[in-house]
Design goal:
This protein is of the alpha+beta class and 389 residues long. It has eleven helices and 21 strands. The protein has a 16-stranded mixed sheet that branches. A three-stranded mixed sheet has the order 18-21-20, covered by helices on one side. It has a two-stranded antiparallel ribbon with strand order 17-19. It is globular. It starts with a helix and ends with a strand. 37% of the residues are buried. InterPro entries: FecR (IPR006860), FecR_C (IPR032508), Ferrdict_sens_TM (IPR012373).
């Protein structure tokens, strides 16, 4: 079996290179570095883009799973035998470089110029561009407002829009739609902030009245709920109800997702079945994710890295043991394209890596090609994924 400590070290390396490591996790990795000169040498080589690039060019075709296990085995062996075999420093470092290029290839691709042949591809993909700030706000009377970059209010390139229309006696229901290839941030009447990812919808009243605040969402959204203990905040989505008092959390529920993913960043929330008061509530604590199955309505909870889950809000795609099918779904929503696999087996290839959210589409494809032995054939807005010949 793989030692849990070795698995932990691998994950810390990934987060360090992807730029999502916390201060506490960096301190843990630094402590591991100080255990021996071998650890320090391995650490330095794994963070040297030039070294990793040389190793990548030397080893083009690599099994994506076996090197990861090999890295864990070598770290474990080095820890046990570091006093007897000084030469292991070089051996382990070389193996780690290969593994980084396979598992963390995305980040490496960001630290060096894309090769000339890839630069020419960028000019050939004008039909597929990164997403932009855009949304449509529709009232229950059919009034529509198109929102875009003109409403931008921060350097994160996500616009905000606060309704300034007069409040009616009976607050109107509003619907904010973010299309494929879009994103948006809105500030609600109570100062709650909501970030919407591509192909998402938020339904809410223009003002909150009564003893509660209630909205509905489909797609993916990040909530920073303004605290108001007298008026709890409720989020409805696909049969699940989230009760909030004042907190930050991410919720994901796309039509093709089997589960609703609710991830708590801070504060506390309670989850229950929508319309079923007898189902009871499940309390979620920070750093945990609830998976609500849409079919049988069963709920499970697991610990997650919230920085990975919410990376989309910070201008980055971070993939941690995600298969290619899941990755292409997310990319297709953001870059607004359709795709097909030449071989269905490709859907299950697992990746770990990082891609800038606002990078050109050709850059994103180049990173995936370098990481997984793939080729992408692009015609207009249609992409075919195949094995590298």
């Amino acid at each position: 079996m793989i030692d849990e400590h070795d698995e932990r070290i691998c994950r810390l390396f990934f987060k360090r290179i992807a730029g999502i490591i916390s201060d506490r996790e960096q301190a843990e990795l630094d402590a591991w570095r100080q255990e021996s000169e071998a650890h320090e040498a391995l650490y330095e080589r794994m963070l040297d883009p030039a070294y990793l690039e040389r190793e990548y060019k030397r080893r083009r075709t690599i099994d994506c799973e076996r090197p990861r296990l090999d890295m864990q085995r070598r770290i474990r062996a080095e820890r046990m035998r570091r006093q007897r075999i000084p030469r292991l420093i070089v051996t382990t470092a070389a193996a780690a470089a290969v593994i980084l290029l396979v598992i963390f290839g995305g980040r490496i691709g960001l630290q060096r110029p894309i090769p000339t042949e890839t630069e020419s591809v960028v000019a050939e993909l004008p039909a597929i561009r990164p997403g932009v700030t855009q949304a449509t706000l529709t009232s229950e009377t059919g009034e529509r407002i198109t929102l875009g970059a003109d409403e931008a209010s921060n350097s994160a390139r996500i616009a905000s829009y606060t309704l300034k229309t007069p409040v009616h006696e009976t607050p109107r229901q509003l619907c904010l739609d973010v299309p494929r290839g879009g994103e948006f941030r809105i500030v609600l009447e109570d100062s709650t902030e909501v970030w919407l990812n591509a192909e998402s919808r938020l339904t809410y009243p223009e003002s909150f009245s009564g003893s509660e605040r209630r909205v509905a969402v489909t797609g993916e959204a990040y909530f920073k709920v303004a605290r108001d203990e007298a008026r709890p905040f409720y989020v409805e989505t696909d049969g699940q109800l989230v009760k909030v008092y004042g907190t930050e959390f991410n919720i994901r529920s796309y039509a093709e997702d089997r589960d609703i993913y609710t991830t708590l960043v801070s504060g506390s929330i309670a989850l229950s079945r929508l319309g079923d008061a007898r189902s009871g509530e499940l309390l979620l604590t920070p750093g945990h994710q609830a998976l609500f199955n849409k079919n049988d309505e069963a709920t499970s909870v697991k610990e997650v890295d919230t920085q990975v889950v919410t990376s989309w809000r910070h201008g980055r795609f971070v993939f941690e043991e995600q298969n290619l099918e899941q990755i292409m779904r997310d990319l297709s929503r953001w870059y607004d394209f359709d795709y097909a696999f030449e071989d269905d087996a490709l859907r299950q290839i697992v990746f770990m890596g990082s891609i800038p959210r606002y990078s050109e589409f050709a850059t994103a494809l180049a990173i995936l090609e370098k990481s997984g032995g793939l080729t992408f054939q692009v015609e207009g807005t249609h992409v075919v994924i195949a094995r590298a010949r």
